[in-house]
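QA checklist item 7 of 12: single-chain prediction sanity check.
[x] sequence parsed
[x] length recorded as 561
[x] structure emitted
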Amino acid sequence: MEYHEPKSNFIREIIDKDLASGKFGGRVHTRFPPEPNGYLHIGHAKSICLNSGIARDYAGKFNLRFDDTNPSKEDQEYVDSIIEDVKWLGGDFGDRLLFASDYFQAMYDWAVALVKKGKAYVCDLSAEEIRRHRGTPTEPGRDSPFRSRPVAENADLFERMRKGEFPDGSRVLRAKIDMAHPNLNMRDPVMYRILHAEHHRQGGAWCIYPMYDWAHGLEDSMENITHSICTLEFENHRPLYDWFLDALGIYHPQQLEFARLNLSNTILSKRKLLELVRDKHIAGWDDPRMPTISGFRRRGYTPSSIRAFCEEIGVAKFNSIVDLRVLENAIRSELNKTAPRVLAVLRPLKVVIDNYPQETAEELDAVNNPEDPAAGTRKLPFCREIYIEAGDFKEIPPKKFFRMTPGREVRLRYAYVVRCERAVKDAAGNITEVHCTYDPATRGGDTPDGRKIKGAIHWVSARHGVAVQVRLYDALFTKRDPEEVSEGRDYRENLNPVSLEVLNNACCEPGLTDAAAGSRFQFERLGYFFADPKDSKPGAPVFNRTATLKDTWAKIEQKGK
C-alpha cells in the first residue's frame, strides 16, 4: 500500500520530544474513537490518517475504539461501515478493535468510587433546569439543591439508578467540581443519565449510560494510550478529563488538539448528513455526492489519494476552510498517472463521412496512457459513421472555437483530419447529423503536407460503439459555506439542483463493455470515471464521474452567488 512521506507538524514534534525524554517509556500508542451514530466523512479521514500514520511511523500501536455510549442513536450498520472505512484507508488496528461498552462495569465502579469520595452526587434537576443553573461564560452557575446530599444517600440512589428503579430523565449523576469555574465544562458536569434502551452490544444489561466526557478519558487510560489526539473543540474539555483521571488516581494519557477539517461547498455535520439521507435529498450514505468516506469510495477516489490530500493540507492549530479543489486535485494527480485512456461520447451527435467507403471498417492504434509507456496501445474501430460530442459542433462558432464547424478542418483523435461540409436538421430546426469529408492521407491524425489543424476532438464508431449509463456528479452545495444563510433560512436551500445528471445514451468504445466494477478510466477530454461497484453488471457498466479534467468548483460557486 502506497504511503506518502509525512510532513513534520507540531504533534510529531511533541512526540519526538517525548521519545527523546523517555516519556511513556518510549511508547507511542494512538487511537481513533468514533461514535457509531453515522457514517464517517472526510473529516474523520484526516483523523484516521493522522492517528494511524503516527503509530505506523513510530513503530507504535493504533486502536479502533467505538465510543458506543448512546444506544438511542447507534446502530450495527454504522459499526460495520466504520470498520470497513478505517481498513480501506489503511488504518491497521490489528486485534485492537475495542468498544467503550466493554468498559461499562469499570466506569460504573469508578463512578461509585467518586461518589464515596464525595466527588459526585445524584441530582434530580431536569436537563433544562441543569442548563439554567449552569450560568454563562461571564456569570457563575448556581449550586443544585441536591449538591449537598450525604454520601450514603448518593451511593444508595446511584445503585438504585443502576438497578432501573427510576424513569428516564428523572435523575443524573454529576461530578462535584465548581459551579463558579470559568470553564463551563467544569461546572458539575453530568456523568450518567438514565436511559432504558437496548444497546447494540450490551442488550438490556444497562439502563444508565455514561456521558461522553466521563467515558472518553477513562477509555484512553484503560487502553494505555500515550497521545490522545483530538480536534480543537475538545480543548476546553481537557481540564475535565484531567480532573477525572486525577480524582481517580489512574494512568494519564497526554491529550493534543488539532484543527478539524472544514471543506468548502460541503457539510460535515453527521446530524445534517443524516437529515439529507432521511429526507432523500441524496440516495444514501454512500451517494457519490456525499462527503462520507463510503461516498468518495463509490465515486472512485482511492485510499492513497485521500491520504495524499490529508498530508497536503497538514496538521494545524487553527481552524480554516480547505478548498474542495485541493481534494479533487489529489485524485486527478493520481489518476493522471494510472488511469487508462478511452474514448466515450456523453451526448452523441452523428457524423457521416461522405467519402469514406460505406462498408469499410478499420482498426486504428490508440495510446493507453501517455504517462505510462509500459501501458502500450489498443485498437479502435473506425467506420463511415461516428459519434462526436454535440458540444463539439457549432454551426455559427464563437471566437476561438477550434472544433467542428462548416468549412473548417478538425482532427479526429487517433484517426483522420475531416472537413465539415454541412448539417442536417429536423423540422424543429434541431441538428440531427453532420456530414464531413476526410483526407485519407492523414491516417493517425498526421498532415504530410504540413498544414496546421488547430482542433482535435474525440469520437466513437457508431457501428461498434456501445451505449452505457454515465452519472455526472458536481458539488452538493452551491455556496462555499453552505451554512451561510439569512435568518429563518435553512442550509438545505443551498443544495445544488444539478449536483447529479444521469446520461442514459452515452456511447463508448466497445472495450468498455467488459469493464469490471471498480475499474477507473480517463474518458479523453471529459474526465475520470469509475465503474460503479454497486450498480454495474457484467456487460453493462455504469460509470460515475470521479473528477473533471479541470477544476469546475469555481464555476459552480459563482452560479450559487
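[x] summary fact logged: The first helix runs from residue 10 to 21.
[ ] second reviewer sign-off
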